[in-house]
Amino acid sequence: MSKPVILTAPMLAALRLLTGCLLTFLTVAAQPAAAVDGVLETAKRDLALARTYKVFEIDGITYFFNQQDENGQKIALAPTYDDLIQKYREPVPTDPMTPRRTPRQLFKDAIAGFRQCLRADPTSRKAREGLRDAIAEFLEGQSLIANDAFVNALRARFPRVNPNGDPLELLDPHGLLELAARRFEEALDELEALGELPDLLREGEPPFGLVENGAGELVPSELYRAMLALERKERVRVARTGRLFNESALDARLPGDVAGRRAHATRYAQRTAHEAYLNLAVLGALHRDPASFTRNLGAAGRTHLQDAQRVFRSIRKGENPRGYVKDFIPSKAVVELYADAVNPVIEANRDENDARQAARRYDQSLAELLAEIASQRLEFRKPLERLSGLKVFDNGSIEKVLPDGTRVALPFNINKPEGREGFLAYVRRQIALNIRKLIEDLLAEGRFPPGEADLSSLPEIPRDEDITPIGEIGIQIIEVKDATLGILEQLELVRSYPERIRIEEERVGRIARASFRAAKQIGARQIAMGWANAFSFGFSCSSGPLGGGCGFSVQFSPGSIISGYLQAQITELQTELQVEIENANSEANIKNLLIDQVRAVLGLRRAEARLVQATGILNNMLAEATRLLEDWGRAQEEAAEVYFSYPTYRVERDHAIQRAEDSFNRAVESCYFAARALEHEWAETFSNPVRDPLGGNPVDLGPGYEQFTQTESLFGARDTLELCDFLRALYEWDKKLRDGRRGNPRGNESKCSELISVREQFLGLDDDLRADDQTPEEIRAINDQLFRQWLTRQLVPNSLFPGTLDLLFTFATNLESARFFSTREWNQKLVGIAVSIHGTELGERRPTIEITQGGTSCIRAYPPRDQIIFCKSLQALGPASLKEAQQNPAEQRTFDSVRAYFNASQQDFTLPSGDPNLNTLSPGLVDLSVAVDQWSFLLNRAEYPENDGFPVERITDIRMIFCYTFNTPAETLASALQSYQQLLASCDRLNP
Fold this sequence. Notes:
By secondary structure, this protein is α+β, with helices and mostly antiparallel strands. The protein contains 20 helices and 19 strands. It has helices spanning 9-22, 38-51, 81-89, 103-120, 125-154, 173-189, 222-248, 258-285, 290-316, 334-388, 417-444, 471-534, 558-645, 648-682, 720-740, 758-762, 776-793, 879-887, 971-979, 981-984; strands spanning 55-58, 61-64, 210-212, 218-220, 391-392, 397-401, 407-413, 535-542, 549-556, 751-757, 795-797, 805-811, 829-839, 848-860, 869-873, 894-899, 901-902, 931-939, 955-965. Strands 11, 12, 14, 15, 16 and 18 form a 6-stranded antiparallel beta sheet that branches. It has a 4-stranded mixed beta sheet with strand order 10-19-13-17. The longest helix has 88 residues, at 558-645. The radius of gyration is 56 Å and the shape is rod-shaped.
């Protein structure tokens, strides 16, 4: 057996280097699995898993909700609704259940779990706080997706699209509004869980009721979130109520009859108002004081409650919930109102196309940004794949391909910071596992000193895990293994040289000993041979003539003995020489071995250097992977900053859409007023098909107008092209009415004038009345005195000029009494009005009279023989509101300033041909009904210079001449409507 060899210092240094290199890499500490103990722990885990949806990704760019920088400052960037919504709706990847649950389901499961715990132990603080946080988080999540549906419903005309042009949103506003309402209701329903624990509903601190949740975040309080969800829910319900009435109840494209759809809208409105009241009352009772209730959106809740109640009352009365009253009285001519509708529609069409173009530019720029991000990803993805041998996808997911071709998804995503750490930890763990496998194999072979291997710091090798090195890092791991084996081989070589020298020395010694022993034996034999050769013995016998005989002879030669001794000495010398030669050769061999030993030590140093180099390259590869991952994240963060901090296209798109929506709403309102004005002009409501009041078949307006059955169908218009169709439908309706109505066209024969005396017809002070005891002069004098006394009672103080008295009185020209205007004509409208003041010494300046309509306006409908009268309400006017009405004429009240004449008669306002003298008539109330049950007559003696000091006390009568027309509206209206059709034809839609 060979003697144990003590390791020299170089050998020990080499072994320490080897173990140091092998154990340089970070080890993966075993994470103990979280113990799932009971329902409470399960609920807490579900709540924690559900909250992970706030770790979000924006177009492949990763951020955290409420993310902070290294200084603890909150990062300005925040997730958009789209990002949080997507995460909220997707299953949580780390959910251990199969199938995986969405955050919504996890929140509900957590709520159910906490409630179960509280039923078992009502005093459990963790369960109480967990239930509160879970409900608050659920309120936030449900409000998130409900808000998304609400917003999408409001902007359904401008859906966003993906890079392929496919819409990303549903386009049905009704379905989106109903979805939003259900989401809010689901959130509010969970508040029932706190019915027995109202103390858990915190109000928080202003301005948003901030409190701290279980995750250490400052968030809006539970009450604030509940009030916000309620407020949004009522807003959604009110919005859908209006749509149900305006569209579902009146749109012929929808199934069912009008009465049924209107009844459904009414029931929905009633339920909305009732639920708003109950919900607001319940949540309001949970607040400490009114100020807290107001701070937590109580005022907004009351506002929407009032809106819901107003809408319900409007619908129940059959009125339009948008606030546009049916009894519309136009304040200007139909042609002007129609023109006021055409221009906004054209402008809205332009804004609509601009919005679509801006949305397209935004989608294009976003696609370019995503392409740039994808390019950056590719720039870093390929080196990562090359280094690690793992498959890296654009979405940050990682796959490993096993030797048999099986693809295994790894549980981390490098789009997230923790995923990038997971990637590096995985690579380091693979290195550590390979190192452990190498050391275990060397220990099993006895090639590694047990004392130098500390396997406790290395992870255990899983039984079924594949640890085959892959990628360039895997190849480098093999290089490290090869360098390790190289060191061990050099160590074995260095360790063999002392033994080889010992063997050489032993060989030489044995050869010397054997040579000397053989030389002695050979020398002894050589001497013996010399002695033997020195003596020679002879014996001979002879015969012959002389006789024979035998003889014995001995010869001695001393030279042989000398020769034997000499030969023995020669042998000894030769042996000594041979031994010397062997010694010299052995010494040379030993020197060569020593030289080779030095070379082996140098080879060990080179092997050490190769291991250092291999491990250095491996570390560099790890560092490169780390840099690539950092660059990956940094590039995405920079792209995200561009996405948020350079929002040119996004802002342009949003502004364009907002402009288009505002223009569209203005155009809808203008079209509504144009339709109401045309209805007023015809004294009947718009309908498609056009009904025949004489019993004939209804007439359809033609193809393309089927959706417009009533004026309210306008509110179902989805874009400006349909608004154009609606205005064309009005034009076609006007044409059909002209073809179907049998009245005379408006012309000279359809105009007339009516003189009305205030003294005679309103007060009954008729000078033509006769009395047996009074002369006509006496009767006239009495009537003058009574009229002046009545005028005196009509004098009222001027509110702006103290000490000045104005003349103000009201009168009526209603149709029901049939006292003034013809009962045989239909569609009676004003052409103009004039005022004549009668009296003595009235002066030279003609006063200005202010006349205002109020009360109810009535028009006879076609056919006139049916005596059908349409009455529309005007806002009632009194002295207090008269001045406001005059300064702000609106659809419910009309106003005109008339220059009065002195002592004029009806003939003064009529030309010889019978036509009214329009030059002397004020047209301010043109096209309005002549029959109104409340007119206001005002002579303001302070604000008009010509009225200053006017002698009201000398007036004996006030007469008004109403010039009016009737039957079919003038042909000039039809021509004007036709002239706008070419403008409407300019509306177009931007090609998708």
